[in-house]
């Protein structure tokens, strides 16, 4: 063994502890999940083509403690599927609503909190929410809804352009294809 000292690691605190990162995902969970088939069982007998799916997406963030750095970020997704009815009109095929949340700790400058909460946090939650939505629609008897990737930067910029500084609000999502 050698008696030479290694240079200090820039990623450790003076007491040898590892400092927390700028963004820490503490917990993620399904806060609410709803799946309805209003026209069941008849819809399954009359459905002859892929239903048209309208999606809405909303991101909300709120602090969990006054003046703290721990936040709940909520990704809300609603999918309304409309199918052609035998009489030439449309009928609801299904309605799926998902509220998927994460508890995040942020250790950043105050000017970075909003973009982290409304861009990076939902980006981390999205793959899990996407999977839940695909599973619930498939398990409900329909082709799984496969959401395309979401540009959370564009949604955040759109929200900032509307002057919403409350970390609340949403934006419609373009229709996606089911597979």
UniProtKB/TrEMBL annotation:
Keywords from UniProt, A to Z, are: Chaperone, Cytoplasm, Protein transport, Translocation, Transport
Any one GO MF annotation of this record? unfolded protein binding
The record's Pfam families line, in alphabetical order, gives: SecB
A single GO cellular-component term from the record reads: cytoplasm
Keyword check for Transferase: no
**What this chain does, per the record?**
One of the proteins required for the normal export of preproteins out of the cell cytoplasm. It is a molecular chaperone that binds to a subset of precursor proteins, maintaining them in a translocation-competent state. It also specifically binds to its receptor SecA.
The UniProt subunit note reads as follows: Homotetramer, a dimer of dimers. One homotetramer interacts with 1 SecA dimer.
What family is reported? Answer: Belongs to the SecB family.
Q: What is this protein called?
A: Protein-export protein SecB
Please give the organism.
Teichococcus aestuarii
